[in-house]
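Predict both folds.
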Amino acid sequence: MIPMSYYLILSSLLFSISLAGIFLNRKNIIIMLMSLELMFLSINFNFIIFGNYLNDIVGQVFVFFILTVVAAESAIGLAIIVVLFRNKNSIDVEDIGRLKG
């Protein structure tokens, strides 16, 4: 049996890698979206760990809701990237601030 602390260390490691990916990379929006996805997956991993530890199914139900919200967020983010690329021919984060709507 693997102790719960190992899973929590793995989840915190994934969360810190994704946090570093968001703050250190301020140019490429695709890497920022991937880091955000990794952050949500580490949170989901925590819900599954604590749900299994407490013998409760509620954590896994929350995971399904979070996954649907994250899927919608990534679809909207990719649509914004496509529009940005069509207008500016680049996907720099700085170009988003220059768009007027």
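Second protein follows, with its predicted structure tokens after the sequence.
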Amino acid sequence: MYDKGRIIAGVVIFLILLAFPLIYLSASGEGGYVPQPVIVTEEEQCVEPAEYMRKKHMELLEDWKEGVVRGGTRTYVASDGTEYDVSLVETCLDCHTNKAEFCDQCHDYVGAKPYCWDCHQAPEE
């Protein structure tokens, strides 16, 4: 117990070194690269608001797949009441035509490996 001060000092220094990258990035305001996907469309919005789609588009696509395959549901009613065809190719890919500039930017950024293209044909670039 004679080294209590040194142990506490060592733990504090270790924690500061461990937290340094987070402290530095938040203090400098430079969080790094954030993707800016390019959307080429005449539509005003997606099937749901952009914030919802950023967070939950995969859940929406999973629900669509389950609904079509297991229940035969072919229509999606959005939160604003608009009806859409439940189709990755005919609904989503009408607006999101460039996989490299839209899908791949964000998926690469977060390290996601989507399996959409295992069954669907990827849009031509």
